[in-house]
Specification:
252 residues; elongated; single chain; mainly alpha
Length: 252
């Protein structure tokens, strides 16, 4: 029996590449640019709804159940488990969103400033909306997140603030009692405690002002004072920045 000679590839084509690899045949790789499946979009939308509902419900009650979150999201409880293995995984999903929001805000706030006091005030005003949105994590971190997850969320902000504080100490604007690293952690703890008072209902924005304006400007002003800036200069700096920037919004 005579064997059939091997078919030669077209001139100029690598003989080791098949027509399914090049997308010219009828194999499964023929479509080189597959379109996103509608189901993937629906899945992402459902996941976002669950996370948004989790923010609301956990903000109302840190002890709420996945069933409560599912009801608030308008999905079955088993749908929540499709996206998250349990409560801890759901909280980690929120932490991942918060980490991205902090990263974006840190990038937005990284702009040239005439001095370190202005830079620090600008940073707090820019970051505060994201911090306020995810402030429920301040309490959840103690029971649902490990220290390494908290570090991942706050790492960009810590780096940026430490750099600003070092600059301010060189300029003689901030006190030098603590080096930039420990001073950064001290300011972080202070700002997180302010967010915790908002969680507890002990501090809220004036409803007659733009949302987050009161808490944001107060947080920025007191952060400057804690860093060693004169109170009058801190107030003037923050007021000028707030008037210039307008209502603070979290970058998306």
């Amino acid at each position: 029996m005579t064997s059939r000679p091997a078919r030669l590839p077209p001139r100029g084509q690598d003989p080791h590449i098949t027509d399914t690899d090049t997308g010219t045949g009828t194999g499964t790789h023929a479509d080189a640019h597959p379109r996103a499946h509608p189901r993937a979009h629906t899945r992402a939308h459902t996941r976002a709804r669950i996370l948004e509902a989790a923010l609301r419900e956990l903000g109302r009650s840190p002890d709420c159940t996945l069933a409560d979150i599912a009801e608030a999201a308008g999905v079955a409880r088993r749908t929540v488990y499709v996206h998250f293995a349990g409560r801890a995984a759901l909280v980690r999903g929120l932490a991942a969103e918060a980490a991205e929001a902090v990263r974006l805000a840190s990038e937005v706030a990284d702009v040239p400033a005439p001095d370190a006091a202005t830079a620090l005030a600008h940073f707090v005003l820019t970051l505060w909306p994201a911090a306020d949105r995810y402030r429920v994590l301040v309490n959840l971190a103690r029971q649902d997140l490990g220290a390494h997850h908290v570090d991942e969320v706050l790492a960009p902000a810590r780096t940026a603030v430490a750099r600003i504080l070092a600059q301010g100490q060189r300029q003689g604007l901030f006190h030098t009692t603590l080096p930039p690293g420990p001073l950064t952690r001290a300011l972080e703890a202070y700002l997180l405690s302010l967010l915790d008072t908002v969680n507890a209902g002990a501090w809220a924005d004036d409803v007659t002002t733009t949302a987050t304006a009161t808490t944001a400007t107060t947080a920025a002003t007191t952060a400057l004072i804690a860093a060693g800036v004169d109170s009058n200069l801190a107030t003037t700096t923050v007021r000028h920045l707030h008037d210039h920037l307008g209502p603070t919004h979290s970058p998306r």
